[in-house]
């Protein structure tokens, strides 16, 4: 049995690349390039937009087909009042600027976790949007799992639901030039039920644009991203916020791309920048064929209904 596992593992050599390894790649239609972006948003939408524009242009110069941006790429304020006040509808100026950046650079943009005004005077949506290279909004996903923590023992209180409305829909994977792309946001990665649902809906690439806190990022970030890639046999792309945004908030960073075998194939350092990698759907199919986990699931024993009863 050990020899069998060794033979399987040899079929999928680990490839790891450091931040911005552009010269290593040329990119083809069969193996398109993508850019995972890392930034440090602040409570200044204009300055954050300049960073998005610069990183998108850099991604295009390095022949990326899609550039992936993190949660809160529009802004990161330090209090509920400002968060709600600064939010815009998807028809607002910030999204209009993103569309212009995409069209100007002839590049798709995944902008994961913009603050979308909801019409509610007290709450917004945390929304992942996908814009194509012609500047058209092609998909919208509103975060369904909100990060709430009110721990009386430690005194830590972080309640996303205080100012964010829960999304109500799992959005089917979107056909893109790099494959079928599934939209999620940050805390969603802690719920494998969502990623499995997206895989069953045809996902080849899972996305987790994030603003992960430093402490939880140090402990769980890479472990969970690699787990989601391995168990679903999908590429995982996780753009990230990094560094100190204000006196209250520090993000972990380490934006990364993981292949369907669970190898980290590109990762950013701790500063603003991008990392480039290829998407090889032939590798994905090889992983799924040689390790056919999907054929072995005992859904007769752990159906959704039965799992819900046991919780």
UniProtKB/TrEMBL annotation:
The keyword Hydrolase applies. Keywords: Hydrolase. The keyword Hydrolase applies. One of its GO terms (biological process) is nucleobase-containing compound metabolic process. Residues 32-281 form the CN hydrolase domain. GO terms for molecular function: bis(5'-adenosyl)-triphosphatase activity; hydrolase activity, acting on carbon-nitrogen (but not peptide) bonds, in linear amides. It holds the Pfam family CN_hydrolase. Transmembrane segments: none annotated. This is Deaminated glutathione amidase.
